[in-house]
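Human: Here is a favour to ask of a fellow structure person. Comparing notes only helps if you start from a blank page. I am asking you to supply a protein in sequence and structure-token form. Write it directly below this note and I will take it from there.

Assistant:
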Amino acid sequence: MNAGIYGAIALFIIVVAFWMIMTVKAFKTLDHSAVEGFHAIDHYFGRRRNLVDDLTKLVKKQMPGDEDIIQNVIDANRLAKDASSNKEKLQTEGVLADTLDTLFDAVEKYPELAESKRYLSLKEKIEDANINILKAGKMYNSIVRMANQRIHAFPTKLVAKLFGFKEHPML
């Protein structure tokens, strides 16, 4: 009779150990996916910043009454390039997006510039980068939502605490 109890206990321990290993593996996979997801967003942020450099060079000489708007974009772009943490990147990129909208609105006062092929091409590429940022952000948030739900759900919450898995911030 004792052998049956010991066998059942051993089987229970093996099942729990296997479940814990698989849960830790799932958390590590989700963490890795979240990091990769943010790298994708950061890639498109970088692409947009490079395009903004080209855009500010183009409009600088052709918008004599709006130097302050252009300078705001240049400053916001520089701050975004210098941001180091993910939180700083998100904040500075948000400011950059807002200043770009202001610049795009101001360009409308200069019809020759607004209709130039180079300006329209840069604006389209920036808009494409913005769309890609949104798509990558949706994918990132989906992964983070799944990871965060597991961190808060019982019984995976116990494994998360035991192995130090933390929530990822949503965008």
Remarks:
- Residues 2-60 form the longest helix (59 residues).
- The radius of gyration is 25 Å.
- The mean pLDDT is 92.
- The chain is about 85% helix and 0% strand.
